[in-house]
Amino acid sequence: MHEARREVVIHVCVTCRREGDDPLAPRPGTRLAEALERLVPAGATLALVECLGNCKRGCSVALSSEGAWTYVFGDLTPDAAPDVVLAADLLAASPDGLMPWRGRPEPFKRGMIARIPPFPLKDAAE
Amino acid sequence: MHEARREVVIHVCVTCRREGDDPLAPRPGTRLAEALERLVPAGATLALVECLGNCKRGCSVALSSEGAWTYVFGDLTPDAAPDVVLAADLLAASPDGLMPWRGRPEPFKRGMIARIPPFPLKDAAE
């Protein structure tokens, strides 16, 4: 059975750094982004962002897809790239535009920062 | 001079409650939403949401506008409605789709939770 899949944009903050991180070392957000560049599958687009505003809880990733909820995750580590891909895949496969809780990698349960309804509103009366 | 203004959607979480809140009292998020219903100006749309995923730092508001960054704010109080309208107005008037820092009501400086780039991406090469 062929299932429709959503195109997903994976936004990664490349600026994220935690207190105490070596200021001369590559930033954790940049390391996460570099790992993602090698892993992002067809149907997903990687977008590097200067700041997702989640500075207290980096590394930060936001997932957007047309007609779907937008999700922001934080408290991610630079080695989270495979989990980011799994989470993006969950959203890509979601029929209703919501990322199911079940099947989320653990960091994407603990690290949920926010979710925003699809925009533009499909029907203000809904 | 006539300036173009953006239509803004103000998403308000009506479920938000803080630890220790009276479980029988109306939820702070609902009280904020009710106050906003009386204040939302022309050019803005109020959207009540069950959960914006920012449960640790409610009350929560997300501001969306076509071609603009989406902003999520938390740690808001039920009496923040006038500040929400001011923040929405800053985004509505923004020529570049970014909410300026200057002029933001204090709770919208302290309470920034996340910001997400415009979607869909205008130009992936940018």
Provide an overview of this structure.
- The structure is a homodimer of 126-residue chains.
- By secondary structure, chain A is an alpha+beta fold.
- Chain A contains three helices and five strands.
- Chain A has helices at residues 28-39, 81-92, 107-110; strands at residues 8-13, 44-49, 61-64, 70-73, 112-116.
- The first copy, chain A, has a five-stranded mixed beta sheet with strand order 2-1-3-4-5.
- Chain A is globular, with a radius of gyration of 15 Å.
Outline the low-pLDDT stretches of chain A. none
**Share in β-strands of chain A:** 15-25%
* H and E order of chain A: EHEEEHHE
What Rg of chain A is obtained from the alpha carbons, in whole angstroms?
15 Å
Shape of chain A: globular
Structural class from helices and strands of chain A? alpha+beta
Q: Quaternary arrangement of the chains shown?
A: homodimer
Strand order of the largest sheet of chain A: 2-1-3-4-5
Largest interface: A-B, 26 and 26 residues
Provide the helix percentage of chain A.
10-25%
What is the straight-line distance between the termini of chain A? 30 Å
Q: Describe the sheet with the most strands of chain A.
A: 5 strands, mixed
Mean pLDDT of chain A: 91
DSSP helical segment count of chain A:
3
Give the beta-strand count of chain A. 5
